[in-house]
Every structure is written in structure tokens, then in C-alpha cells.
């Protein structure tokens, strides 16, 4: 992601004309294909978020809710990447090209800032639940987490190609990879709850996901800020 970000940075300041042809080329050669793939990725991630939220509420699992929130941020990241991709396909001018390059960085910045807030909230909720434990239905957790893992892997496949060209698609790609990891954590916690009847394992899973979200968003935030400075 670093090379891509610095690539835009370099072009913005030194080679505006060259940069505009770069954006133009991307817009025409890959725009439609990646745009369609991104749209599908957005739709399935939004649907998955709804399923996970409902499942989290029904099962009493905070880990599922954490995964749902993480997924929703993925959908936002993908939607933003699709929007920037569509806009960047328009006939370029020096002034507008600069704007598109910045739009991508600002988009990734908004996304990572939101993730920090979400991660902190989930961390707080996990600690709160520790003092007020709730019963967790392991079967629902395992079933929905397995479904989420499949969706995450499909999204990783849909964003893989575009991740090489765009900082936003790469951010979305990384988020979905981390979401796949989160789904595995939730699945394991659900299985352990079923097997050992220990609901606190769910809190451990949501704590792990929260820390993971915070770590990833910190890295993305640091990178975007270093480009904008």
C-alpha cells in the first residue's frame, strides 16, 4: 500500500500531466470490470452485516456484533473505492487529477478513523460484558461465522485484482482479509462455547477482534497521514 500511496503523492506534486494519463488509463481499461466486482462486493457485505447483527442479537454474541461492524466498514470502504474508481474514469484535467488522487487518500483516512472509533467502542463493550455476562448460543454463532467466512473469501477474490492499483481497494482488500480472520476467531469461539459451555470465550473473541481492528486502522491512518503531510 505504501508504494501506491507514495506513487499518487509523487505524481500529484511533480507530474500532473503524467498522472492524469495514468488515471485515465485505469478508468478506461479496468473501470467497468472492477466497478462491477466492487458493486457485488458491497452488496454481499451489506447483506452479511445485517445477517451478523441479527445473529449477534439473537445469540447474545458480542463477537458476532463486532464482526458485523467490521464488515459494515468493509462495505463502506468498498463503496468508496467504487465511487473513486467511477469518478477517476472521467476525462482528466490537471486540477481534477489532483483531486482524484486526494479523494482516494481522504477516503482511506475516513475509513481508518471510523475503524478506530468502532474498535474502541467494541473494546469498551467487551469490558462491560465481562462484568455483566450474558448467555451465548453457540450454534447460531458457529453457523453465521461459517457463512461470514465464505462471504469474506468471495470478497477477497473480488477485490484481489483491483488491490494492486488502488489504495482504497487495497484498504478494502486488507479489511476483508482481516474479516476472514475475525470470522475464524468467531467460529472457534462458538465451537468452544458449545463444547465447554463457557460464554466468556465470546468476550475473548470480541476483545481479539477489537484489538485487531485498532491495529489495522492505526497502520492505515499512519500511512495516509504521512502522505497528506
Q: Mind sketching the topology for me?
A:
Blueprint: H1 2-14, H2 16-29, H3 31-59, H4 62-88, H5 94-131, H6 138-159, H7 167-196, H8 200-228
Helix pairs in contact: 1-2, 1-5, 1-8, 2-4, 2-5, 3-4, 3-6, 4-5, 4-7, 4-8, 5-8, 6-7, 7-8
Q: Can you give me a brief rundown of this structure?
A:
This protein is an all-alpha fold and 229 residues long. The protein is built from eight helices and no strands. Mean pLDDT is 78; it is low at 6-31.
Structure description:
This protein is mainly alpha-helical and 229 residues long. The chain has one domain (2-228): Cation efflux protein transmembrane domain (Alpha-lytic protease prodomain-like), CATH 1.20.1510.10. Helix content is 88%, strand content 0%. Residues 6-31 have low confidence and may be disordered.
